[in-house]
Amino acid sequence: MSSVYIKTYGCQMNERDSEQVARDLVAHGYTIASHEKEADVILLNTCSVREMAESKAIGKMGFLKKDRRAKPQLVLGYLGCMAQRLGGTLAEKTPHVDLIVGTQKFHRVADYVTEAIKRREELLRAQEEDEFKALALSARPPLVDVGIEEGSQNTIRDHLLVEKKSTEFISIMQGCNMHCTFCIVPTTRGPERSRPINEIVQEAKQLVEHGVKEVTLLGQIVNLYGRHEMPKVDGKSPFVQLLEALHAVHGLERIRFTSPHPMGFRKDLVECIGRLPKVMEHVHLPLQSGSDRILKAMHRPYTVAAYRKLVHDLRSARPEIAITTDIIVGFPGETEEDYLASRRLAEELQFDGAFIFRYSPRGNTPAATMENQLPEEIKEIRNKDLLDVVNTSASKKLEACVGTLQEVLCEGPSRNDPTRLAGRTRTNKIVIFEGGQRFHREIFEVRITRATSSTLYGDPAITIS
Fold first, then answer.
1. Which of 60, 194, 311, 363 could form a disulfide with 173 if both were Cys (CB 3.0 to 4.6 A apart)?
2. CATH of the domain spanning 154-393
3. How far apart are CA 147 and CA 111, in angstroms?
4. pTM for the full predicted model
């Protein structure tokens, strides 16, 4: 059977979607290639959040055309957000592509791959036997499916458990209804749609049976999970109900979630984070701007004061909690004072880390047509300056860990140094340490001996029996 290589761009949700596609392909008899040179089929699972991500995927697909000269049977396809946004127009940019599959059709990819392989084989036979038929077949448009499908959020539920892992992603919902003026996600992922609690709990139990000890819940606005499908129970939101149900799963030791929205943090969720020990002490809390004027232009329905209070409430509920964030610089109309407001807030709140983004216009979003678009030079200056601020606070947080004992879940060999092991603290900080196979997938304490600007180093403080 043919082998398939999947290259993933973008977020953790895209990674999870790729895993589901891989699992479905294996179920259909395909093998998953570890490198594109070994593959008969190459699929690019794409991202549309920033223009650069789309450009990289289109550039990569153009480069892959050269590989087809040496391997004429090679099948090429786009999946995911860019495929959803651009649909069949991608064939104009890369006419050699064979299939284009959107975000609500991942569960159909294996069937489309089978069809694309048949079409490719038919074309190659025709090139040997019938020149006119070959010309007709080569002019066929690619297979395209970017349609809406009810219930598609429930199809991202299986895992390719080839190797034992300590941590896994669980997709609990798809889509977003917030319509921030800078964001393309509502277009590429559709409206909010959530999976039933019992199905998510069952998926977690199956993962635990395979040795998984930590799950990360994924959603575009993960803490607004279930608000359209499920009622509150005893004043608890569906997301809190889900956290409690997962907390009761025997053998599941750690629960994380990303990415939430400040508006989804009601009193019940803050209280839940404070009382459930399996919910890790880390919240990624996108700010986007420290200026109320810019927040309003972004259609972010909270104020700086409300955000500041939420950070205070979270730190009060869980004093050891780590808070990371996203901030956009150079949004249309952002003045120097608007930017400095973001800078001052970052200095005040002392984040454990942040992703700083230069504003990137996305087609079909309100912000792309706003007046006062800023030049790239200003965006670059503000990006670098704010990154320095955040890196300073992040480094202080890491330095404060030196000499302490930190509970770590070992995830396996370090990516940069396979002779060492890597894991994460409860606050999601990376720790590198010495050790052998017996530490894999175990939770234990590590004494932190030093810190760099992004990583902790330490020695296991207890013996694994």
1. 194
2. 3.80.30.20
3. 16
4. 0.95
